[in-house]
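Discussion board: Methods & Data

I've been asked by a reviewer to show the raw model output for two of the constructs in my manuscript, not just the figures. I'm not sure how much to include, so I'm pasting the format here to get opinions. Each protein appears as its amino acid sequence followed by a line of discrete structure tokens. Is this the kind of thing reviewers expect to see in a supplement, or should I convert it first? Here is construct A:
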Amino acid sequence: MSALPIVVVTSAAGRTNKELKRTALGLVQSAIRPLHWIVTQSTLEHERVTRMRPVRTSGIHIASSSINLDPQSVVVFLRAGDTLAPHALTVILEHLRTNPLAQMLYADSSHGRSGRFEEVSEVRRPGWSPERLRSQCYVGDTIIATAQIVEAAGGISLLADLHEHDRALRLSENAQNISRVAELLTLSSQDRMLPSASLVAVQEHCTRVGIDAICTTPYTVPVVRVARRCATTPKISVIVPTRGTVETVRGNKVVLAAHAISTLLGATKYPSIEVIAVLDKETPDESRREIIAAGGGRLQVVDYDRPFN
């Protein structure tokens, strides 16, 4: 596996030497060490950590500000106090090798330290969803992105010191291929288990991408509610896959899809709605006729002769 140059970025703003040291030692102990470790907002006190012998002799180049990124670089944004699992960078490079179109990655994390007699918990994150990211930074604190995406999102100097929700949104705006690495790559503290959220970051994101919405934080947990304003009446399409199954409902034999369609159209007052019935090749003619009758002029029929799942 040819190694891509790895750049780890950590903001020292408001962080203690102890936290920064934990991150530094994790990088030193990594199976694959990064080429660069950029520590932004560092003070003279913080530099005591970057001058520690294990760091100085590790071969990792330390910088306190942005560098000219190699176009092939992989940038890892890592929170001070968090550590990468020893195999994390190996896993990241392998994921990029097998998924060459990937531009932004996030992964699962472990929280708590058994040495402190803490209960260690794992956070297994769901798949990629831009809507969910607008609600909360469910992707976590550690984000991996290609150099091109980092530069397009404003560069390291801008991104390094942003709130993690803001940073993830900006990177996602410029990435077309985003995926989750289903492995525990980051070791963090218990207080970072729950996703964070930034109302301002989401409001600015909506402005940048042209979403006309009212953003609020109406809940006790950190979640942003994005309520879109609809200037028009957009069409809503309801897709009903079926094979024309007939069952008994309240004592009567009914075609389930026809029953569902007629119930839906009878209950809704929304003016611009269509139903797309996807009919399996085994759908009986009688069931087909009932489905078409139930949908009327708001129904489209699509014949489908391949497996549904």
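Construct B, same format:
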Amino acid sequence: MGSDAIAIELTEDTEVGFQAKLLPLELPRLYTEYEAVRSRFQVDVQDLSMLTNFNVGRPTIAALSADPSRLRSLLGFSQWSYLQFVPSRYGRSHCLTAATDCLLARIQGILMPERRNEAKELRLHVAALTSLQDSLDDAYASLTPETLCASQLLGLHALLNPSEGATWANHTRGSISLIKHRSPSRFKHDFDKALFLAHIGPIVFDSLMSHSRCYIAEPEWMELYQSLDTGSDTLTERSSLAISIRSLMIRLPNLWHDIDSATKGPGLFDEKLQTSLNFRCQEMHQALVSWMEDYKTYCARTSVLSPSDQELSVRRELYGTALECLIVVKRLFATVSVDQSPELESDVQALVQSLLDLQKQPGPKHSWLFMGHEMGVTQGVLLTRSQWQCFPFYSSPRERKLAVRERYIDWVEKLQPRW
């Protein structure tokens, strides 16, 4: 019997009566394993690609905790993400499959609360954690992109559970360790690179909050990040403008770490070290100013075009990021260059006002995703404005230095919980 399926249709012939006619048999289309699970949960993990955005972090958890329905605002936007590679790998990796099931159940519970099944969510979560741990305990499996993906999927699950803020931080640090353990040479394919891209933001913000060095600033990691540049004329997460501003932000934790260590320790009185830090601040400041010029040039060059909502969203996000970084760098600059402090603080207040004005303007419906960091920076500055605007005269250089330390520490303490 042939392999081709057939059907028989009876047709009427006026001369010979009924006769059989062979027709191809139309078989029902078979669902892939992912299509089947997507149909069961009625949600698609790919719709949440914006949750792999650079700015996703603690402010995201706070925003979703205040209003879980905000998740819907992400559904109309997308970006290049490892989530688009999940369907083709679903069913091939146990830990990735279990983590996907766990995340889909959580998304369904938020978007369709009437269908939420907490017992099922818990069961799937436990199964996913167990499967991930089994993969991490295996020397080979721990290095696969599927294991890293499962870790990041469970990180998204924690992100969508406001009560699990600490769990999200643990998943983030776990993924950071996995990425570092794999080394840049293992990120060769698009799936690997998308996993790397999704975790750059969390790595940077974790380093900023802990005032620790950021290993992605090392040359081999920076080379990997910059290789993601598509060279496209359309502004996306992988365009030159996006890569360049975030490359500067990747370098910021190392500068801040060194200034923090010097300001809180004996380096505060080391003039040679202070001069070196001053020079590094000038370099970073000039790089940010140059980026702003490049951004304005790009906007002017494309002004005759009608940018898509997607591009306008990326523009708004990147411009806000640049303002944030300039504010922080100017405050760091004023910490190691007290003589220029009044002028620098005047610039800081002007930038804060620009950022506040920007936040009042109509923006994409998912702007809450990146405005949390912006608001943290502006609030940290406004709460310490008086100490930085009115720096009194001190009778001795030592007293002056100690006052610099005091106002710096106060600013950092006000900023940390909000950023």
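Answer (T.O., handling editor elsewhere):
This is acceptable in a supplement if you add a one-line summary per construct. For B, something like: The radius of gyration is 27 Å.
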